Amino acid sequence: MSAIPTATDLGKHPVSPVRLSTEYDAALSRWLWLVKWLLAIPHYIVLFFLGIGFLIATVVAFFAILITGSYPRALFDYNVGVLRWSWRVEYYAYGSLGTDRYPPFALRDVPDYPAHLDIAYPEHLSRGLVLVKGWLLVLPQLLVAALLAGGYRFNGGLAGLLTLYAGVSLLFTGRYPRGMYDLNIGLHRWVARVLAYGLLLTDVYPPFRLDQGEREPLG
């Protein structure tokens, strides 16, 4: 049996353990996006230090998976929390410009915030895959992610370009074009799956598939 979960046919895919969802808001400020770089600075400062902890936790988790076949739950929850926090900030700021609601300072999910990211905890992870998935197996996906949203980031690439277009549209029309929004979220969803796999949080290989819109597909 392959160590990498694969689809049984071209019409079906493994259900992704990575769940990224949003809520479309048609009533956004025309001008607020111009200063979000300033408003988001406190988050970027906190995320810088959280990112250091993230790297340390990932290194520790690497050895834990190699020895025990499991990702320590406390480290997993922390790392998912950092990714979740980062996604909320980028959704607010220049990853998507999807909301004008200021993101909360929290690692946990905030139910009433319009951007969510969750990764199902794996009870077991392959000891062999941990040696190669973060740099070799993820490489084709990482090259795609670099084009979509700047690689191991949530802003940049095609998603960043769409966000710029969305900002211009907001400035002149006061609306975020729905098709542009759905594509932007789909790009981030793809990258989130690549992040989860490359950073050892799952053994489910991310599909080469663009799932657009606010909600994850059922399968």
Can you describe what's shown?
With 219 residues, this protein is mainly alpha-helical. It has one domain (31-198). 48% of the residues lie in helices and 5% in strands. A two-stranded antiparallel sheet has the order 1-2. Helix 2 (41-68) runs antiparallel to helix 3 and helix 5 packs parallel to helix 6. It starts with 17 loop residues before the first strand and ends in a 21-residue tail after the last helix.
List keywords for this structure.
219 residues, mainly alpha, 7 helices, 2 strands, 48% helix, globular, disordered N terminus
Overall strand count: 2
How many domains is the backbone divided into? 1
| Adjacency order of strands in the biggest sheet | 1-2
Low-pLDDT parts are: 1-11
Overall shape: it is globular
Structural category: mainly alpha
State the major sheet: 2 strands, antiparallel
Distance between the termini: 21 Å
> Beta-sheet strand percentage?
under 5%
Radius of gyration using CA atoms only: 17 Å
Proportion of helical residues: 40-55%
Summed up, the helix count is: 7
Averaging pLDDT over every residue, what do you get? Answer: 91
Order of helices and strands: EHHHEHHHH
Task: Give the SSE map.
Elements: E1 18-22, H1 36-39, H2 41-68, H3 73-92, E2 115-119, H4 133-137, H5 139-149, H6 157-173, H7 178-198
Antiparallel strand pairs: 1-2
Q: Briefly, what is this?
A:
This protein has one domain (31-198).
